Amino acid sequence: MEGDRIHLADFFEALSRTAATVCVVTTDGRSGRAALTVSAMCSVSAQPPSLLVCVNEESGVCGVIRDNGVMCVNVLRAEQAYISDAFSGRLTDPGRDPFTCASWETAVTGAPVMSTALVNLDCRITNELHHGTHYIFVGEIESLKLNQPGAPLVYRARMYEQLGESGSLSLEDMEYSWERYT
After folding, report:
1. Which of 7, 91, 110, 122 would you call most buried, defined as having the most Cβ atoms within 10 angstroms of its Cβ?
2. How far is CA 105 from CA 30, 110, 134, in A?
3. Which residues, 6+ apart, have CB-to-CB distance to 173 below 8 Å?
4. Is the model's pLDDT at 67 over the cut of 50?
5. Of 68, 51, 44, 35, nearest to 121 (Cα)?
6. Distances from the Cα of 51 to the Cαs of 41, 80, 124, 180, in angstroms?
7. 151, part of any domain
8. What is the DSSP annotation of 54-68?
């Protein structure tokens, strides 16, 4: 780093050392059906239940999400990397509809819901912010579906990664005491 300047390569390397859950964000409405893979998704608030998703403004899907005003966040399972690849553009068959790689239902908002995802979070977009190269969409969750339990697909170090069994105690099983750790 030079002074306050951050080198882009250092920025990308730093973020590659973090882990993110992989999701397919879908939308449908007056501007049509579309979807893309994202790893920038997190909760915003429990009251009202809401989340945010970051989408590159140059993605063709970004404008469709903005116009439709709805999105469904489909959290992928550890074994669904091929679905992530289909919606990220990694699979290079432009004539093939990526929606054919999974089974779909329709959410309350009208957005496509992937039947086999780990979790489906159906949202109405209530706020958006343009920052740098991305739009940040805040969605209030109108419906959610908890599917069969399992592990999420995780992206870290520029590749998919399997989560292992944790030897850690659950928060319920831990005894917390400030005195114990000071």
Report:
1. 122
2. 18, 9, 28
3. none
4. yes
5. 51
6. 7, 22, 10, 35
7. yes
8. EEETTSHHHHHHHHH
Query: How high is the pLDDT of residue 165?
Result: 59
- Close Cβ partners of 167 (under 8 Å, ≥ 6 residues apart): none
Q: Output phi, psi for 70, to 5 deg.
A: -140, 155
Helices (H), 7-46: 8-16
Q: The domain spanning residue 40 has which CATH number?
A: 2.30.110.10
- On whether residue 1 sits in a domain, the answer given is no
**Over the stretch 22-63, which tens digit does the pLDDT of each residue have?**
999 999 999 999 999 999 999 999 999 999 999 999 999 999
Q: Is residue 22 part of a domain?
A: yes
Amino acid in the structure at residue 143: S
Kind plus residue range of the DSSP H or E element containing 70: strand 70-75
Q: What is the DSSP letter of 115?
A: T
Residue 74 in any domain: the answer is: yes
ω into residue 48 within 30 of 0, thus cis?
yes
What's the predicted TM-score (pTM) here?
0.87
Closest CA to 74 of 13, 123, 29: 123
The bridge status of strand 119-131 relative to strand 134-146 is antiparallel
Q: What does the pLDDT look like over 70-112, one tens digit per residue?
A: 999 999 999 999 999 999 988 767 778 999 999 999 999 999 9
